[in-house]
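Revision sheet: structure tokens.
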Amino acid sequence: MMDSLSRHVFYPLWDLKDRSQRLREWRALEEQQWWPVDRLRMMQWERLQKLLTHAAEHSPFYRDVFSKHGISPASIRSEDDLLRIPVTTKSDIRNNLENFISDQFDRNELVSAKTGGSTGFALKLYFDEACQERRNAAQLMADRWSGWDLGMKKAAIWGNPPVPSTMKQKLRHHLLDRTIYLDTMNLNETSMGDFVERWRAEQPGAIFGHAHSIYIFACYLRGHGITDLRPRGIVATSMMLLDQERKAIEQGFDCPVTNRYGCEEVGLIACECEEHRGMHLNLPHLFVEFLDGENKPVKPGEPGKIVVTDLNNFAMPLIRYRVEDVGTFTDEPCCCGRGLPILQRLEGRVADFLKLPDGGQVAGISLIERTLTKVPGIEQMQLVQEDLTGLSINRVKGSDHNPEMDRALISELQEVFGDSVSITIHDVSEIPQESSGKYRFAICKV
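Predicted:
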């Protein structure tokens, strides 16, 4: 009954009270996801041109960029024309924050956020309320693909969970958000055991959390023979979802995992549907490009740097913003029937690519998957590259570990890096987390 009340009564009343457009935008997205891709592209391009015109007039940063490069919004008539606009980087934002903000908005009245800084750059960001509502609407749509539905109680496996303090926050927590938390900053036998008991008492319908943290909890369940935690949906987000971890999570909960991809700067970028054959790009809200090392478009199936234009944020426009991730896309449609194109695979963050002695580079996440797939005896693993001559492996032993597996692990990595690179295994009890509660599988310090 509470699920139904939350969806049909409390959500609409709360939006009415706040004069929010969130549910209206959600209903629009529910319809738009089934549009043909050509119709979606036409709407996307109209929104892009509107944003470019606004940024050229009201964002001092982009006004200067357009002037310096002789660009007018009216001259951007195709994707090739868009390439004339320089890519925006994290350094640009950090060094010119005030100039990004539109002169039509009072910064004190904007929603602010800050990225975690795991790639070395912590950024301050601003959004207007309408942008925030649209982002929330896109997340509602995508989360429903997992089996969750509006109003359903959630179990969140998350770092630094929010604690409601004001009366409004407490009401929202009980009537709308309806979430129980397992704090990933304190994952241990006691905290996970307590969370199991709370789950049994409150019966959440879906799990949301960091992919690796959900994996650790799933391993706890399997290790203790716990089989009665059966959600209708699982959403893994905020970090890479490894194939091996997906299998372990699905075995632990007897439920498919939905992989969701986004970032603080632009919101939801892509999410898997019920077919789980790649992630649908959030076309109504974002213009997404995949670029090579010279910032030229790559072909379908080729890895490229992900560059995003946020079509929602008029308070602090971000045009052709490089999110520091690498991925591949496909132009093949999904058999689900949605017109939203597919992000085929995330290759990892730019910061997590390791350097090869010959000048090349390799995705750290690919190395992790390669070794975890081929070499048994590994519970968790992290690669750290301090320089070009050495590679360190932080490894948590699995219960089936034996010394032969160490030789096999080193051999697998030497096939990639060559014999000139020294590879050292360090046994650790756990892989350390970032301050956000996330885990990094590969760290390049070169």
